[in-house]
């Protein structure tokens, strides 16, 4: 079709012009000399090849100059280019031919020569460029989505990475003080620490089963109990209905770690993780000292790194429109609640 189409294009323009001309003059071009008709068709075929070749060169020029610009201004310039190109090519090939045959060049011949091929040229342009623009639009959308996803993925990795320094510092600090009092307990703590670290290093790229997350929290709590006050009163409830549900990892950790960090007063910590109406609900309460540390909205921790603002941003990226999160002080307790709506 690459080689045949220009000839068909030229012949289509020629026969359309002949039919319009014959309808005005009353002639019948099939009654003329076939040598004359053949010569006119040969000129029309040459005109078709010339126009398609020049059109492709013109569009290649526009594509190179305005590679990623699909504005109205560009389309207007392309249409003007097609119009001028058509005007030149048609008058080079067809105007002299008509002037030297039959009864010479008449006004209606000039109108037909410049109108009919222009109509076909615009139709051809519309079909070709609409396909090209649609493909370019799809490619741009895919590229934009890829850039957006890469940016979000980078941000998520950065947010997750912020947990590690804080977690390492607390765990190593605990082990350091245990070494002086109980070497056996310190070894056990190292084993717990290794399990927790392994989970953080290898299980964060995809969603995990809720049972894995519960197991991780229990190990983390066991590690925190070692360095907590003997006055600690811990109440845990994990719903047995939670088995195969998939969640993104380490979303509950900031709330648990925050509770252990700021616990005081009565040293009461209550944690509840349950399934209700197909959603996952996480509640955690911890008593705070009578003289509470400074709390600024959701950003309880002033250090850079782990914080509830970090958690909230992760929730916005991982569960857009599918989560509810609240945290704040209520009657000498810090209360945090998180609801995750699972995809069906």
UniProtKB/TrEMBL annotation:
Keywords: Kinase, Membrane, Transferase, Transmembrane, Transmembrane helix. The keyword Ribosomal protein does not apply. Residues 154-231 form the Signal transduction histidine kinase internal region domain. GO terms for cellular component: membrane. It comes from the Bacteria. GO terms for molecular function: phosphorelay sensor kinase activity. The chain crosses the membrane at residues 7-29, 41-58, 79-99, 105-127. InterPro entries: Bact_2-comp_sensor_kinase (IPR050640), Sig_transdc_His_kin_internal (IPR010559). The keyword Methyltransferase does not apply. This is Histidine kinase. It comes from Chitinophaga varians.
